[in-house]
Amino acid sequence: MISSFFFNYLKFVAHLHGIKIIDLKNNCFELVKKDKKIVVIKKDFSFKKRFTKLRSEYKQIIDGIKYFDLIFSYAVENTIDLSSNFYINYLGCKIETNFLQVKEISFAINTYNKHYKLKEGDIVFDLGGYHGLYSVLASKEVGTSGKIYCFEPDPNNFEICKRNIENNNLKNIILINKALSDHTGSDIFFKRGHGSRIVDSSFKSNTKGSICKIESISLSDFIKKEDLKRIDFIKADIEGSEVELIKDYLEKILPLGIYPRMAIACYHYRKDLNSRTDKMLIDLFKKKRLNCKIGNGAHLCLYF
Q1: Of 65, 281, 76, 60, nearest in space to 167 by CA
Q2: DSSP SS3 for 11
Q3: What domains does the chain contain, in order, with CATH numbers?
Q4: How many angstroms separate the CA atoms of 205 and 249, rounded?
Q5: 0.85 exceeded by the pTM?
């Protein structure tokens, strides 16, 4: 009864946005507005439904209504399946990505440089490249005389990112299939698409094939290997490993006189360290008597 009532409420909200919800049965629905269409799936929970669970059950429908216009401001096709990748037009490039990344364009990707404007010839590090959208943005700003080093350790994300870079002929992006850490070698890795990350040996997953080994490298070792004398900007969103990244930077790179501006995602929680990363990162900079600021509440970042 509650589930039926909530669905009727969603239909009413959709109507207010000019969207019609069509029930295709088998837990599939279409959200239709003029010539645009979003296909969504209602989760089928095996436990007894509670009102507090309904937002999860109908999450794709709620997201489809809320972000309908945003999705089609980027989408190339007129029909989108929210559970699958689709193509968007981003800064004149045809990019394969998904709904979660499109949602992040306005409150994350387009805000990393709020305190530092990229310029022609800059050397930029995109750590946690995912499907490459920030690298695309940086590529446009730094021009042919600039360079972007894009690190993406997840094998599936890497292949998508690689296609996006190659299909758009972005020659100033160098893609590296490694994770950034405070050491060089290998790490246990949890493949989870948007939330892929390095984990410890005790980590367990119920998803078959989601645990693998990946290559890791420290930023200090990479700089030494490439003989880099400067970095102008670092963007990092590496699912909690920002702590190891900054430790490596402060201990081994800062003494070399390499002083990049940074936007470091710091909204993650490290269970192994029992702390949120924003607190840990601020403490690391304070110990070196370096000024930094926390901002962008929608996608919390440390700016340096």
Answers
A1: 76
A2: helix
A3: 2-84 (no CATH), 100-303 (3.40.50.150)
A4: 31
A5: yes
- Let me know the angle formed at the C-alpha of 264 by 104 and 86, rounded to the nearest 5 degrees: 25
Burial 3-34 (b: 16+ CB within 10 A, else e): eeebbeebbeebeeeebebeeeeeeebbbbbe
Side chain identity, residue 241: S
Helices and strands: H and E segment counts in the chain = 10, 19
CA gap 28, 61 in Å, rounded: 10
Q: Encoding tokens for residue 38?
A: 């979003």
Q: What is the DSSP string of 127-158?
A: ES-TTSHHHHHHHHHH-TT-EEEEE---HHHH
Q: Does residue 280 contact residue 268 with C-beta atoms inside 8 Å?
A: no
Amino acid code (one letter) for 55: R
42-72 residue pLDDT tens: 775 444 445 555 567 788 899 999 999 999 9
pLDDT at 204: 67
